[in-house]
Amino acid sequence: MTDGEMFEALWARAKAEGLNHACYFGGYPPHEEGLEGRFDPDPWRNGTGPQIWLYRVPCPEPRDEPVVDGPYVSRELRVFAHEYGHFRSWVEQSNGATRTWQAYFQAGTLLGKSPGSLSGDQKQLIMMEEERAWDIARDVLSEIGFSNWQELKSHREHALGIYREKMGMDGSGRDA
Which of 88, 95, 137, 161 is most enclosed, with most CB atoms within 10 A? Predict the structure, then answer.
């Protein structure tokens, strides 16, 4: 399977498993620079359900179908797999009803607004969920035939490093 075929299969799988919407978004929110995707269980808080966005400039059309060829496909497959990991984590934790997931989501929201006000426990919750999402991404990519593990490992470490930096943590996950 090509990266594009895997991307298309994973996109369809997420939708079949209950993801309400997946789409491209034509910009990068300032607090997520370098992190090209986002999962939100209900972005408008109106019951619309879970969504994954992939950020890309310029935004491809149509926005609600995976782009399965071109220079970004490999990266977007990895990003989507990671965001799918958050979706699966949310599903596995009673659609986000567990205290742990609720605390993580609250901490993640605070990270976007005021990273300096996060407690040590909140930072650990964020890092644990980010690592869990990457672990789920690795597992699902393995199931569909992905083989560029060094690329995934590098992407994972880069993304986790961005989170540690934003939260003022050192490489071991402690406050710097």
Answer: 137
Q: Is residue 175 part of a domain?
A: no
Structure tokens given for 6: 């895997």
The answer to the question of residue 174 being in a domain is no
- Contact (Cβ atoms closer than 8 angstroms) between residue 104 and residue 49: no
Dihedral of alpha carbons 23, 131, 9, 20, sign: negative
Task: Give the C-alpha separation, 61 to 24, whole Å.
Answer: 8
User: CA Rg, the chain, in Å?
Assistant: 16
Say if pTM beats, i.e. exceeds, 0.85.
yes
What confidence tier does 172 reach under pLDDT thresholds 50, 70, 90?
A: low
Q: Is the preceding omega at residue 62 within 30 degrees of 0, hence cis?
A: yes
Helices 3-16 and 73-92: angle between axes, nearest 10 degrees: 20
